[in-house]
Design goal:
This protein is mainly beta and 258 residues long. It contains 1 helix and 11 strands.
Amino acid sequence: MLRRLGSHLTNQWMGALSLFLVLGGGAAYAVGTVGSEDIIDESVRSIDVRNGQVRSADVRDDTQRGGGLGAADLAPGSVGASELNPLAFVGLDISRATPTSPFEIATNAIQGSEVSDGTLTGLDITESTLGGFDGHDAYRDLCDTPSDNSFRDCLTVTFALGRAMDVLVVYGGGGSHGSFDSDSGLAVGECRTKVDGVNRLEPVNLATEWDSPVGMASIINVIPLSAGTHTVALACREDPTDMHFRDLTIGVVELGFD
């Protein structure tokens, strides 16, 4: 009898509690039944989130639509030096100009290795810092070639390029007689251009009649070269009589910047 009375009282108490919740406007939720649609926008604040509760795994991946964090998600001043990867910067890359000024990129912090090829344009470069084109030249007043009629490098210019580019090479000079061919009365010779030991152009003939020196027309050549050290030369020979080659010049202008 007592057991039946206790069960009856319990049922009455549960019924009264249910009626109270309904009349009072209250609602009861089972675990796992609250979704984002049940939460009023902007109603959840930092105080409602337990410390350490939100982790990187709780942030949507950058590759998904609407994923990742943007600038709007970060409070002003929330990212400081402690949040930066220590391997991303070296000492003094980011500093203050004065103790109270904002952090900024320090002078000379960005080097060529940090800049992607092809990303800079003329607007990014101060023209006064470029300087002029690099040039190289050489001069020789006299070259007496051997009597075996073989070509001899009378004049050479060696230079280094920091990157691949075209170079403008100008050759010049002239010849004077040493002896004459008895039949023609001429002293004959020829010169050819070379780049890194390889013949570049066909020989240019020179001939001196009796006592009259002859000048060689300037040879102008634009040559594409790779980065590295290169040598251009003017090689001459007498054919077949003795000839002296005078006032030989080579000028090289790099048509680009290292």
